[in-house]
Design brief:
heterodimer, A: mainly beta, twelve-stranded antiparallel beta barrel, 1 helix, globular, B: alpha+beta, 8 strands
Chain lengths: 270, 182
């Protein structure tokens, strides 16, 4: 009954429009097609809280649909944090395995487990743990995505553990190196009103809530992240998102800012 | 020599006309709405060599697949391509060419080299192009699959292959058995 009320609430919010689950700040439980390759250029432009200027992270990413259940991402982490231009600071690997799928016509419920490994040589400058471009460490999580009467919602929970960064940058917060992350995402397709061809430009609007609680001291943050997405020729994506901290008791140096992402997908590559 | 060429041509033409047992396949993919997902399915299907053309209805996730004349379609391969793209077959109808084919409920028949097990049908004789729906579990959404699970007590519905219970001499034990309805 609670689930029904929750679904009803979401339908009331988003109406009966088609939803998309190609979320900007999180990954859905669905994977890429087998044999396809996706190329991403991720640009994070985050406003420094305690210094002037913008913290720019550039993350080129290659995504591979290894099988119908498994996909893998490889990332390079660049940033301007050292103030000497863009510098390669590390690299990451991400794998997601879809272990449950119940498909119906324009509906599905899917669950996937994922792991992220991050290696980073940058200095550690905040209490927030982020193995995607900031900390060396790992993340283990599960994500569930529901496409329900043309509405897609997704939620994930993960455990993230920071380790010492490379280059002699030890993890400075003793006893606070692990955290639990939780996300909730919802999205809708604004255009086109009716599908007639693969060449139609799709416009999607999404909103995501992203949170973290440090298991060591119980401190946490919660962000809201609206985004806009354009899909061209059913194979390329332009994502424009903004992340805004709602509250935080964790020390963070640049929580607010933009993401600009370009993505291109190649089908049947192998 | 010229005579031989004509003879070969005639044989090929007649061969094609007799061999064409399957024409169009209407496939509804399940588990998707977005055009990028549909495109992944479309591109995966286009890799199949017995497919001549695919027309799509993106709003309904329908793919109307025409089979090359004379080619023998592999229904499981179509399903596997949809699954490899990350989705499922929700419904699949196949146009089959029948010639004085007697069918009855829960009985087998061989058409165009494929073993078909008819379910939920009245006894009748089929002639010409008829649309049949595949009702094997992997060609249906879960809610529909539950309904068809009890349509026969024969083991072949679960195994997908002909068993020893099948008395039709044209069907070999272990042959792929597709369960269909009209």
């Amino acid at each position: 009954m609670k689930q029904l009320m929750f679904s009803g609430l979401l339908v009331a919010i988003f109406g009966t429009v088609k939803a998309q689950e190609l979320f900007v700040f999180t990954e859905p439980a669905s994977n890429m097609a087998t044999g396809s390759i996706g190329l991403r250029l991720n640009n994070y432009l985050m406003k420094e809280q305690y210094q002037t200027g913008t913290n720019y992270h550039f993350i080129p990413e290659i995504m591979v649909g290894a099988s119908k259940k498994l996909m893998v991402h490889a990332d390079g982490f660049f940033s301007n944090r050292n103030k000497q231009g863009l510098e390669l600071e590390g690299a990451g690997l991400y794998a997601k395995y879809r272990f449950f799928s119940n498909d119906d016509i324009q509906k599905h419920f899917r669950m996937a487990a994922y792991v992220r490994l991050g290696l980073n040589n940058s200095s550690i400058h905040q209490e927030e743990i982020e193995t995607y471009g900031h900390n060396s460490g790992y993340e283990l999580g599960i994500v569930a995505t529901q496409l329900l009467h043309r509405l897609a919602v997704s939620s994930s929970v993960s455990y993230e553990k920071a380790m010492d960064n490379g280059g002699g940058h030890k993890y400075p917060y003793t006893g606070r190196s692990a955290a639990v992350n939780y996300t909730f995402s919802a999205g809708k397709l604004v255009l086109p009103k009716a599908y007639t061809s693969y060449n139609q430009v799709n416009l999607n609007l999404m909103v995501e809530v992203l949170g973290q609680t440090n298991t060591g001291n119980g401190r946490s943050f919660l962000d809201i992240a609206p985004s806009l997405q354009v899909i061209i020729n059913s194979r390329s994506r332009i994502d424009l998102g903004y992340r805004q901290q709602l509250y935080s008791s964790l020390f963070r140096t640049a929580p607010n800012g933009f993401i600009v992402r370009l993505e291109h997908n190649l089908f049947n590559v192998f | 020599m010229k005579f031989l060429k004509i003879l070969v041509s005639l044989l090929l033409i007649s061969g094609f006309s007799f061999a064409q047992s399957f024409r169009n396949i209407e496939l509804q993919a399940a588990g998707l709405t977005c055009s990028m997902c549909s495109n992944a399915v479309n591109k995966a299907l286009k890799q199949i060599d017995f497919i001549q053309d695919i027309k799509t209805d993106l709003d309904k996730n329908l793919f109307v697949i025409s089979i090359k004349p004379g080619a023998e379609p592999d229904f499981d391969l179509i399903r596997k391509k949809v699954e490899a793209a990350g989705f499922s077959v929700g419904k699949m109808d196949v146009e089959v060419n029948f010639t004085n084919q007697k069918i009855a409920n829960d009985e087998h028949a061989v058409v165009g080299g494929k073993a078909l097990h008819f379910l939920n049908v009245k006894p009748q004789t089929l002639n010409g192009w008829k649309k049949v729906q595949l009702v094997d579990k992997s060609f249906l959404v879960a809610s529909q699959a539950k309904k068809w699970a009890n349509a026969t007590t024969m083991a072949c519905y679960k195994t997908g292959v002909a068993g020893t219970c099948c008395t039709d001499p044209a069907i070999k034990p272990g042959q792929r058995m597709y369960h269909v309805t009209i």
